Amino acid sequence: MRFRGKASMGGLVLAVALGVTGCATPTLDRGAGERGATHGPDINQQGPDALREGGDLRVPIDSLPPNFNPKHVNGARVVTYQLADAILPSAFLDSADGLPAVNESYFASIEVESTSPQVVRYVIAEDAVWSNGRPLTWQDLRGHWAALNGADTRFEVNNHVGYQDVASVERGASDKEAVLTFAKPFAEWQGLFRPLVPVEVTDTPEAFNKSWINGPTVTSGAFEVAEIDTTAKVVTLRRNESWWGARPRLDRVIFRVLAPAARADELANGGIDLYPIGGDIDLFTRARTMPGVEIRQATERRAGQLTFNGGEGALLSDERLRIAIAQAIDSQAVTDVVVGPIVPGAKAVGNHILPPGYAGYEDNSGALRHHPDAARAALEAQGWVLDGNVRVKDGRPLKLRFVVQATPTGRAVAGVMTEQLAAVGVRAQVEAVPVERFQDTYLQPGNFDIIAFEWTKSPYPISHDRPVFQIPDGAKAGNNFGRVVVPGIQELYDRAIAEFDPEKRDALVNEIDVLAWQHAHHVPLYPESGAYAVRAELANYGARGLGAYGFASAGFMK
Fold first, then answer.
1. What values do phi and psi take at 233, rounded to 5?
2. Contacts by 214-220 with C-beta closer than 8 Å and gap 24+?
3. CA distance 349 to 351
4. pLDDT digit string (tens) for 324-341?
5. How far is CA 71 from the centre of its chain?
């Protein structure tokens, strides 16, 4: 089984139909200066000859990461993976249709040599080198595996899945070959080494945990780090003149922390080149009338959801109470408010792991459907008696701290949810917090009763989402920010991750999803709109959909 192009694994799609309605609320259409919906990336695809030489691509971001190592527990952020597209190797890249394809800039071939035991041979491109001049070798893959496989708990890793199933990484016929032998089958093996960090980072726990706190040092990509200004909150990349691949047209890619509320003005004034619209109606409306700007849209792997705090001592650690609260939530009503004005007819997401459009997707929300009458009855049975507008038990009112990001989308979700909870006698105390403090101060430490945010999904849904259901071990909870433990789910994950038959694997994933609903682990809400406001002259960039970011091919029209 040899991979020189697309690997045989289904991609994930958030399938939302775009249309035009007769209501007063503006919707995404195919009007002049705008681009309609696509099933693939909507990026104004152009060949190199159509692009002018030079220019800066200026991208707004929510915040700088506390650690630039994308494999560190504090580095698993959207911005670090954006940076990785430009400055780090990956074994596979997501192609336009969402299927993983071998990244031929770094790997000549990747071959499955046997399945019992599972053995994969990686042949590294001869030209691939790191920014310090050292060739990329099998030792980089071995160091990456050794740091992430969980054997040495001093490495503060965001995800062990897959790496812990590898028995060894050995040198092949040369330093440019790495041979992985698996201790047990791992069906989503193409997700390994995405991205790949150098052995200089994985050599010791100290290096892994701290050497990239202030920024990446040893890199390898079409771009390299020019400057990180922590005061201005700007990361500047410049073209890597030693890059062995096709020469990028852009001089620089500049990532700048910018509040969503300021992005429309900044795009209109020429300070940035695009911004994500998400569910922000104001950003959408502004973009429609902005000269020289078009709206690009593509389905993508991103969805909103609610996480409950089920950790020790938390009010919602009581599963019966958590289930009652979940029954009060109408995900479709949230979807109608947040995404409906931009994507009419958008349906709420009914699966914790697989987004709509994926071949194995099933809407399993019926396992814990919206049922406010059942919620009221359950609360009464648990001793939460209505006292005026709020339920009380043992003199304690049923109040829940509901944390959202201080954005229009966050406030819209909070508004709908507050009404839904109030309808069953639960008071939501909304805290709209700054975006740059959201993850470190609230999400990761479990500083909430309920918290709303968006998950970015992966072409490898099992290995990507397993940390969401991880059993907490002291302060380590993976991505299980609510610390809710679901009995039986780990055993199902063990079976699913070793299952190579896609239909059987999907069936196991849907069993996992049903359990997640039944125990109210978290509640999926809405699919992201996938809409972006983009400077019309920008080519090969915009709404990437299921594909890679593609900084190396981006540029501006002649």
1. 60, 55
2. 214/68, 215/68, 216/68, 216/69, 216/83, 216/87, 216/88, 218/130, 218/131, 218/132, 218/134, 219/87, 219/88, 219/130, 219/131, 220/87, 220/88, 220/89, 220/106, 220/128, 220/129, 220/130, 220/131, 220/136
3. 6
4. 999 999 999 999 999 998
5. 14
The mean pLDDT value for 425-431 works out to: 98
- Residue 169: both structure tokens together: 């990484």
How is residue 98 written in tokens? Answer: 């969402």
> How confident is the model at residue 15, as a pLDDT?
27
- Cis amide prior to 195 (ω within 30 degrees): yes
Taking alpha carbons only, the member of 62, 487, 483, 445 closest to residue 235 is: 62
330-351 burial by CB neighbour count: b if 16+ within 10 A, else e? Answer: bbbbbbbbbbbbbbbebbbbbb
467 SS3 class: helix
Cα separations (Å) of 408 from 307, 435, 441, 527?
Answer: 19, 12, 20, 16
- What's the half-sphere exposure (Cβ side, CA atoms, 13 Å) at 400? 30
Rounded Cα–Cα distance for residues 292 and 420 (Å): 41
Instruction: Tokens for 176, please give them.
Output: 């440019």
CB-CB neighbours of 397 under 10 Å: 15
Q: Enter the tokens of residue 524.
A: 């999926």
Are the C-beta atoms of residues 429 and 400 closer than 8 Å to each other?
A: yes
Q: Over the chain, what is the mean pLDDT?
A: 90
| CB within 8 Å of 227: residues ≥ 6 apart | 234, 235, 236
Could you tell me where the beta strands, DSSP code E, fall in 45-147? 56-61, 92-94, 100-102, 107-115, 118-124
Confidence of residue 541 (pLDDT cuts 50, 70, 90): very high
- φ, ψ of residue 552 to 5 degrees: the values are -65, -25
